[in-house]
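Worked example 2:
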Amino acid sequence: MKKTGLHILFLCLCISICNSEPSDTNKGNITVSVEGCELKEGKIIIALLNSEKSYLSLDVRPYQYTYLRHAYSYTFKNVPYGTYALQLYYDENDNDKLDTSFGIPREKYGFSNNARKYFSKPSYREVCFPVRQAVVTQHIILK
């Protein structure tokens, strides 16, 4: 009889461990706040990239992406700790692409750390930032 009680106690303990919520101790939130444009029409597109390869790719495949129509901030939640980069642009005419003229952007854009180059995209080193804590904030000015 005593063994049965111990088995039931052990079984209850195993069930409670299996049903508990996973720990988010190795995840954080990235809050992106944006300024430099007035959202009258269109949207701000935000790409969160998790590797240098995805950042350098001409066909950007973000880790996560979102767009803002009536707000100037967004929080990516439960992002695993690591190194990330942000690319943003104000898609003023709402055509889902960064419009250019002879390769020069005609719509406002920005990168994490407010990195900027005049004749090329900033290097990954200039735009990457670590996520190693619960909350990381990137304040980006679109130009």
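The radius of gyration is 22 Å. The chain has one domain: 26-141.
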